Amino acid sequence: MKKLIETLKNIWSIEDLRKRILFTLTLILVYRVGCYITLPGINPIELDSKSGPEGLLGLFNAFAGGAFSRASIFALGVMPYISASIFMQLAGIVVPQVAKLQKEESGRRTVNQYMRYLTVIVTVFQASAYVAYLRGQEFAPALVPQFSPFLFWLSTVVVLTAGTLFVMWLGEKITDKGIGNGTSIIIMVGILARLPESIAQEFTAKNSGGGGGLLIFLVEIAAFIAVIVGLILLTQGVRKIPLNYARRIIGSSNAAKEIAGGARDFIPLKVNSSGVMPIIFAQAILFIPGTIMGFTKMSRDGATGSFMQALSDHTSLWYNIIYAILVIAFTYFYTALIFNPTEMADNLKRNNSFIPGIKPGEPTANFIATIMDRITLPGAVFLALAGILPGIASLLGVTSGFSTFFGGTSMLIGVGVILDTLQQIESHLLMRHYDGLMKGGRIQGRTATTTV
Question: Does domain 195-250+257-406 have CATH number 1.10.3370.10?
Answer without folding.
Answer: yes
